[in-house]
Amino acid sequence: MKKAILIAFACAMAFCTCAAEKVRVACIGDSITYGLGLANREKESYPAQLQKMLDEKFPGKYEVRNFGNSGRGIYLDSMRGSEKRGFRHMPEHKVALAWKPDIVISNLGINDNGEYIKEYTGGRKRGQFTGDYIALLGDYRKANPKAKLFIWTKLSPLAEGQRFYRSPEPFLMQADLEEVAKRMSAVGIDMQEPLREKMDEIFARDKIHPNAEGARIISETTFKVLTGCAEAKTIKPLVTKMLHVETWLCAGQSNMQKGWGEFNATPVEKERVENELKRLDKVDIRFWDFNTGEWTKLTRGNALRKSALGVSFAIRRAETIKGQVRMLYVAAGGAPTESFLSEQTMCAIGKDGKPLYPHLAAIATNRHRLDKNKDFPCKWVAREYPRRRGNREEAYWWPVSKMYDHGIKRIKNCGIKVDGILWYQGESNATTCVAPDTALPSDYIEETLRAVVAELRGDRKIPFIMMGLPKMGRPWEPYRAAQKKVCEETGVIYVDTFGAGLGDMHDVHPRDKTVFADLAIKALVRQQAYNNKAGGE
Description:
The protein is built from 23 helices and 14 strands. With about 525 residues, it is of the alpha/beta class. Helix 4 (about 45-55) packs across helix 12 (about 210-225) and helix 21 (about 440-455) packs across helix 22.
């Protein structure tokens, strides 16, 4: 409670001044900030609507000014016809600096798409966009060292029919926008999610400029970030300073999600679970759940609701190393691989400017949630799962990259050293999952597997254990074949559960997770023994 009061006080102090002087809010940006196409931009532009919202909540305390200039961007050397495109060259920039704003809100980036792709294809030096944006924001910090900076790290979506609707640039740019925010201690604003649901209506006129309703959503989103003191809500480190402890990321869908409490019905199962709890009593396992963001020491009293496969694997690993093991848990039933991938990874391109993962790029760039995404091949996930789970609230978990945003990204941002990855997923990416249940194209399957290895492991040489799909009466063989192929090519440890005879022909959720955990541990030990031998030679 004391901490909450202190945060609230800090927020109030950050956005309140004495009656003699108003808080100066400068909205810098392009035509979206300017209000191009609005019938009455003096009243309908997002800065104008933001002023009205602030006046209603804090009468007389804020002054918002619109410094938008249509067609402007970040790159200092980019041209718009015969004139410079960069906002830093504009008279609005100079007037805004002279005003010495206390708060600066920037939506720049959309007009840089055509030039930005060159940073990936060799036409521009990588990092130029980031550098020019930092220089722009630096001007405002020099004008007012106490200025608070806010930038759109996820830009306004583009509706179907707009030039860059199916292009990777807006999604690749997100990583650089987040880097700018981080380096400038700015608060990032996600403007993609609030506008995405109604984007076909909001951008109906020209597919890019919001109507008055769209401007209202932008101002409302901005208002919430400003008055909610968003900078005080950044993700905190998951652990305090301590000696490094072996840490495993355990991720996937329902066969990683389900806890021992769901496999504890028959006398045989009860005995199995009791044996696991006895082993748990003798080891020290700390469990981080992405749903709560909290660390928990696993005990008999709380372990039954945790990942059965993950916990059993961690028990065996702790017994092997004779020390504490930490688990980072990111799993949800039915979760497709796409939900674990950042949009930057899905839209990755090569030097030729072509997508490295064409299927994934198509899924990401149409900007729809998975349950509405016509490019997503698994119809069960795309249609049935969100409907069965409540359609609105539960479907919230199924936009592209949702598991990444809520779990994987948080782990990366906290800088935790991950020593290994246990991955059990595939049922939602192997087939159509509807009658007739048929295998999906091999190139799509391989894309998802390569992308998740790149996302979770990256360039680090750490163990990555991929659980193969077990036996069941579904056409999973093409997926298993792709798993083996990708694992061999990337150095990932493939656990052949099918070859070991594991699984249930009539149940997608095999109830004995101990045999899966045993197999994963054996595969890890074999790989480590091989690596040690190779290193010695």
